[in-house]
Write a structure and sequence with these properties.
The chain is mainly β. The chain contains one helix and eight strands, in the order H-E-E-E-E-E-E-E-E. A hairpin with an 8-residue loop joins strand 1 (22-26) and strand 2 (35-42). The longest helix has 13 residues, at 5-17.
Length: 129
């Protein structure tokens, strides 16, 4: 499979039409794959709950668009904001294992997310403030 502009535009169109303003494409090749490798299309206004992955670092690569990865301390205070925008030369980052984080989307964006452990069975926690 090739991830060209046509593919990204179609994924962004799905996100635009979704009530959650996001759409994903699973990149795992089988049900036995215990990783999370996913393309996530995100539209401005989408709400991703603040969460963390206690047992895995998460790699995020922005293929198109512009968004901020926001890191919080255990009390919910913002401690870092990382702008990802490939046209500005900032393509990706790694979120340390256990770091609370979310995104703020400024322009329609597609990101590649990769980490150890399947979604929802990897110990991921959502912050309750």
């Amino acid at each position: 499979m090739v991830f060209d502009n046509e593919f990204l535009v179609a994924l962004l169109r799905q996100a635009q039409e979704s009530p959650r303003l996001r759409a994903s494409h699973d990149l795992r090749t089988s049900a036995d794959d215990n990783s999370q490798r996913i393309l996530n299309a995100l539209m401005p206004g989408t709400k991703v709950p603040v969460h963390r992955h206690p047992r895995s670092t998460e790699s995020v690569v922005c293929l198109c668009g512009r968004l901020d990865e926001i890191i919080f301390d255990d009390n919910g205070n913002e401690i870092e904001r990382i702008c990802l925008c490939p046209t500005e030369g900032r393509c990706g980052c790694q979120i340390p294992a256990g770091a609370w984080h979310t995104v703020e989307v400024h322009a329609p964006s597609v990101i590649l997310e990769a980490k150890d452990g399947r979604y929802a069975s990897d110990g991921t926690e959502t912050m309750q403030w």
